[in-house]
Amino acid sequence: MQFHLNGFQPGDPEILDPAARLPAAPADASFPDIRTCIVEQKPDRLLIGQADGIACRTMEMFHAHGFAERVAREACWINETTFWKPDEKKPGQIARSGRVQDVEDGLSEFPHVVINQARVHDFFLDIMRKSASRMEPFYSRRVQDLQVEPAAGPGEHAVTVRLERIDDAHRGEVETVRARYVVGCDGARSVVRKAIGRELSGDSANHAWGVMDVLAVTDFPDIRYKSLIQSASDGSIIVIPREGGYLVRLYVELTKLDVGERVAGRNITPDDLIAKARRILNPHTLDVKEIAWWSVYEIGQRICDKFDDVGEAEVATRLPSVFIAGDACHTHSPKAGQGMNVSMQDTFNLGWKLAAVLKKRCAPRLLHTYSAERQAIAKELIDFDREWASILASAKGDGADPAKTQDYFVRHGRYTAGTATRYRPSVLTGEAAHQHLAKGFAIGTRFHSAPVIRLSDAMPVHLGHTVKADGRFRIFAFADAGNPAAPGSAIRALCDFLEGSAESPVRRYTPAGEDIDAVIDVRAIFQQGHRDLAIGAMPPLLLPRKGRHGLHDYEKMFCPDLKSGQDIFDMRGIDRARGCMVVVRPDQYVAHVLPLDAYAELAAYFDGFMVQTN
Ligand SMILES: Cc1cc2nc3c(=O)[nH]c(=O)nc-3n(C[C@H](O)[C@H](O)[C@H](O)COP(=O)(O)OP(=O)(O)OC[C@H]3O[C@@H](n4cnc5c(N)ncnc54)[C@H](O)[C@@H]3O)c2cc1C
Fold this sequence. Notes:
Layout: E1 53-54, H1 56-65, H2 68-74, E2 76-77, E3 80-86, E4 94-101, E5 113-114, H3 117-130, E6 141-148, E7 159-165, E8 174-179, E9 182-184, H4 191-195, E10 201-202, E11 207-218, E12 226-230, E13 236-241, E14 248-256, H5 270-281, E15 286-299, E16 302-303, E17 322-324, E18 330-331, H6 339-358, H7 368-394, H8 402-411, H9 413-416, E19 451-454, E20 460-462, E21 473-478, H10 490-500, H11 505-509, E22 520-525, E23 545-546, E24 551-552, E25 557-560, H12 568-571, E26 580-584, E27 590-594, H13 599-607
Parallel strand pairs: 3-12, 9-17, 21-22, 22-25
Antiparallel strand pairs: 1-5, 2-5, 3-4, 6-7, 7-8, 10-16, 11-14, 11-15, 12-13, 13-14, 16-18, 19-20, 19-25, 21-26, 23-24, 26-27
Helix pairs in contact: 1-2
Flavin-adenine dinucleotide (FAD) binds near residues 50 and 186.
């Protein structure tokens, strides 16, 4: 973590100074100059319940926000998953049929963990509170409706939102907010979605699910493993061990509902869930001592055709100003554990784009890419969820094939870990013409981190952890095998171009007076060991002077971790003879792979969506 750039400041470096508005660490500064208003109908923060699975990819995103370590410490780690099926000799009882490693080796440096959604909210609230804007949600306010002024031009406050206050002291009062952009993260019954005329469509056959977080005594041996259990005639349950070592979540698959039927009409009670869980777990016992939270909810696999307020036919002529994210635009079963994960990835995708447009760094048409990218991902999730649900269902009763279930689970591990997301070529995602230069950084997928050694201080770090949620693009320049300090080296030539040429995206898109890495952050990775290179001989762009004192930033250069045998060039298939550039988006996705001397292609990529500020 870097701080003290603009002067020594005592105290907790994570708490940014609202008065100075000069972030000690730009990486954590969020966007204090953008006024954001979060409204929530609940009277206060979430305390218990709802989703709990945190995929590896989500942990990577949490690291970019600065709280992955806290989650890892507090959460329950899912290391292995077990599978149970009807006992062949006694079909009325279950028997373990398999056990697999939950996440394949090397898929991510972070584990798959489980923690209450309420704690995830707490971590986000905490970083909001520590940010320079000291942001807090406005509780007890319900969105009634919103209207978009069609004639408003770009940059105008085109959206008017009416909020009903629902706390006792202000009940009935209506507040009006005028906004340039509105994001509806208001769940499956989204008012924002309805206001922009979008509908969730998909399966009408809803599934009812019972979920309960319990403290229980049981002789089921895998109660501290994620376990998928299929009984002969009572359906299935999923056991999810929870944080703290004692709590466990049981997902109990209930019944299919009739068209239009609500699960509330079935009057299902916690005792019904416990009774069903006991029948499925037979011959094992389940003595529930306390129910911390329970819910019964219906899930249809549904999706909106578009995640903003611009129809497909108007994309060329209108800009979006209202967006929907999460359950507001896609719903699916909890079987794949994706609801919260995919929803947060939606807003991670959208957040930096909104900030870039509001800060006039990127052209507003960039906002069209949110719906285009995330709708395709949500559609894949729905298809996966449907297939997974049918495999679980077909494994019930006669003809059940639990081996198929286990095989499918293993084959789709990357998907459930959240690392299979791949954005298609677009203005933001390059074509794969030079992919062979870095086979392990697939264009359109998330930047797969690997260990490296920082040149300035021999610190072992993860290269991907330099990508913070700060809205900046990164260019990782992987050097060829030659001496990077030599006058004619490809790295030096690239740095000279980026620092000095009028065509350079770094020069073109960095506002006057801001640090050289304020918009595009250039870092280099050399093939030599860190003791074989002299930091002072490297191009000045890699040792930039920053902040009001013009201090050197020493954290731009890295070497392979040769001592541990983890050479990033081998791990990620980098062409050692030629090296390459890997361009990474602010949301950690690989935007492009280019040769080190592809200056024109690099400039053309950024020219496609950025706005010149100089
Ligand atoms: C009861 C319940 C149980 C769930 N259990 C599981 C589970 O066990 N496993 C799983 O994977 N997923 C579960 N989910 C789904 C999972 O929680 C979601 O996929 C995930 O939370 C999506 O986040 P979201 O922000 O899009 O929606 P939500 O988490 O639903 O959040 C929407 C928020 O908007 C607020 N809101 C709604 N309307 C308005 C309005 N008009 N004005 C102001 N605020 C409004 C709501 O109060 C809520 O806080 C559950 C959802 C619910 C509702």
